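debug: dumping io for the single-chain case to check the tokenizer round-trip. Nothing else runs in this session.
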Amino acid sequence: MSAESDMEYSDNDGDDYDYYGGQDDCDMETVDRSKADPEYFVFSCLKVEEVEKLLNESIELLSNSLHITPSLAKVMLHAYQWNAQDIINKYKENANEVLMYSHVKPRVPSVQVYSSIKVCAICATSPPIHKYSALACGHYFCNECWTMHFEVQIMQGVSNTIQCMAQDCEVLAPEDFVLSHVTNPALRERYQQFMFKDHVKSHPQLRFCPGPNCQWIYQAVAREGARRVECLGCELLTCFTCGAPHHAPTDCATIRKWLTKCADDSETANYISAHTKDCPKCQICIEKNGGCNHMQCGACRYDFCWVCLGDWKSHGSEYYECSRYKEDPNLINDNQHAQAREALKKYLHYYERWENHARSLKLEEQTLASLKTRINQKVMAGEGTWIDWQYLWDSARLLKRCRYTLQYTYPFAYYMEVGPRKELFEYQQAQLEAEIENLSWKVERAETTDRGDLENQMDIAEKRRTTLLKDFLEFNTTNASSSKV
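debug: decoded output
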């Protein structure tokens, strides 16, 4: 079963509508999704059985080409990242170098060899000749010691990299040799599960979905930068390149630094993100119970911004100032304490907005669920069909997509160097944030908002999002290519 990355935030129980492609019965050949969506990335979602078939095809190819056992082919493919042709070429150049990874078949000592073995080097006993075996390296040990060795390794989660017991010997034990010594059914199953997981992890075109208890596996051609994939099972958005939650426009290295920084208690110990704030005008306590940052005090009707507590009128069409961090021009360079305070202030500025959008996303999940319920109620009451109310559902889904992108602009902005490029990014970020808040305000009041007005706001917000992503995803890709050169 295949899926493409433009299926973002699809719903398993509902419609077949896609924001970029429209209804499923439209002529998809007329839609160039790679241009419509800057995050477009072709991939497939595979089940375990499909992946096993894919791996077995490579195993069979190598086994037939080199006339080796499938078990040995697995070891070699794992070592060479499943590049069968590379192994075949290397084998033609130097067969011994390739075959050093394991034995061709289990070896039992001859009478001459057995006569030179006084005792097993591990347990210091002298079993009969038929109870000894070795890998291609020729290090013979009794079968009981091999069994104990394999059982211990399997319990520790090792599978494809189990080595010979001899000191400093790097010859690997293949599957058939291991299973010939391990008879415990539970351990055999555990070993084969570990083998499969290791094979997938070593394959450059396969990635496990990181969702809890999710069995789906992504297949794609690995590339530089943040590449969005969405699981058909749990609908989790993941970066195929690094395995982290999808993080465009921030690149993989930057998001790793940011998440590490956020997880470090020394960075956040003095910061507690409050869930309630006082109205800037009448000082009454207000709790945020929706994703929108455009707040209106229930007591004095004052409109203000939840993030900076400024008058909402200043967040209008001209500029959305509270997304920009303003450097302190009076900072004395040689004052270490002042620099430390400024660094913490800068970090908290971006962290607060990062966390605020994360909370807003969770709250908008509730909005999405309640909106779906209301639409179902209207349909059941005969007030139109799902198609009639489709625009409300699409607006909530688009809002979630836009806010998700906006959240990941803050780590990107935090690490950007001061200059014209950052000024452009912050301008686009501010424009996107302003349109998202306008859309959020209208979505939360969707049933009383004019449909044309809402759809127009959707179009503006999505254009802001795609413009920002297109500019800075291309910028990241260009920089990555330049650094390699």
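debug: round-trip ok. Confidence is low (pLDDT under 50) at residues 1-31, 101-106, 266-274, 481-485.
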